[in-house]
């Protein structure tokens, strides 16, 4: 074996072996293919790290208006989760959480830190557990103005140490509200649909936001809710108990009068993202691209090896003259393949590290998350397949070189199989090019499609929690800058869809239409966004702040007209 490796090492520098091209092409293909396969493994493993993930379900709602089909919504009202724990025997534990997203926190020493914050009740770790490093989770999440932080956040605040229990901080968007750190938990893996590194007690909601709807049963459906079912209880067993529970808390006759069909459903935790239809489609696409890349690189390697057959035929024949069998020749070729593959993997690693930022940005995951203990077995298996395929055909061809070729010129006249291999490679490359062209066109359509407003010179920030007087002063100062053409204010950008609301027939509780809306658009918002006004006029300064005036899209106008008169227009 060592002798074969010595021969393989010497062959790297020999003329006619194309070692540099073989290693480089295979290295590039492996770099791209393995990263994409790692991304697929990462995406499909979402939320599988919880101990009892097979018994954890996301609580969702199905809502329909009038004759529209039921539409699944991934959030529910605040009272649903605790209600299920209290009223349905099949529920072992239930919890609710409210995402605040990325925030900036400020400690008393004026230092600032980034965190992904979420409000959670005291049952959160009963359903979605994390190991605690310090403090008690249930006790902390049951106390107003207390919070849990992840190990990473704790080390940032504590300069590498995690003993920060008792320290206080403020959320920069909500100044004046002091929160106390009551515990530290192990970091949440990145492969979860519910990532966070800071949990604030749900009882702090009113203190932070100034209001609370955490106990509602209908409407205010912005909570992520989860239930841990008892062993032996299935989703089907929960359908009737959930319907009965809703009937006790939400008047079914009133909903019927409004034309609303409102039900709850359970979704297995691992199907919320990792096994959802959208993720599976994306996985199929990425696997197709990775397979095409790996296959093209592999075929290129095999063809380059085979192209050296004529040059190496006398060397192979001499080995046979000294007693080497076909198996010995195969071992020599496989040793050479293994060495080339090993060097190619080194090239792949260097390429991935060199383009690490680009890879992480494109795949939206860190390298440490992609290449983890969960994904390494799959990557090793792919490398093993590449090794076997890269060595199998060349070893058989080289083992078949006749001994007589040492005494005369050796010409391989059978070219049909070469053409077949080349044709297959062209198909793989063509498929890859077509796939990338389609993806490129889709991306181009996505970024160039007209959203109904101008965004090419638009800068946006969210001053949530800032008083209106301070926000107005900030806008006035921005407007004075020579680089700023205009300043406007609204609750959000149109791309974020706004809030969900319902329109009722005047004087009744009958629902006409469900719509997304944006609040607090000022007089400068429409002209700054360059929105086209089809009828009427945009907001201007003639409207007082208290005037109940709204603008609607053409689609919304047609829906309202149809509901009121039975006609559109």
Based on the model shown, name its key terms:
569 residues; 46% helix; six-stranded mixed beta barrel; alpha+beta; single chain
- Estimated radius of gyration: 32 Å
Percent range of helical residues: 40-55%
Shape: elongated
Distance between the termini: 83 Å
* DSSP E strands, number: 13
Q: Given the helix and strand composition, which structural class is it?
A: alpha+beta
Q: Which stretches are poorly predicted, pLDDT < 50 over at least 5 residues?
A: none
Tell me the β content: 15-25%
**Annotation field: number of helices:** 20
Oligomer: single chain
Biggest sheet architecture:
6 strands, mixed, barrel
Strand order of the largest sheet: 3-4-9-6-8-7
pLDDT averaged over residues: 83
Describe the structure.
The protein has 569 residues and is α+β, with helices and mostly antiparallel strands. Helices cover 46% and strands 16% of the residues. A six-stranded mixed barrel has the order 3-4-9-6-8-7. A hairpin with a 5-residue loop joins β3 and β4 (112-120). α2 packs across α13. The chain is elongated. The N and C termini lie far apart (83 Å).
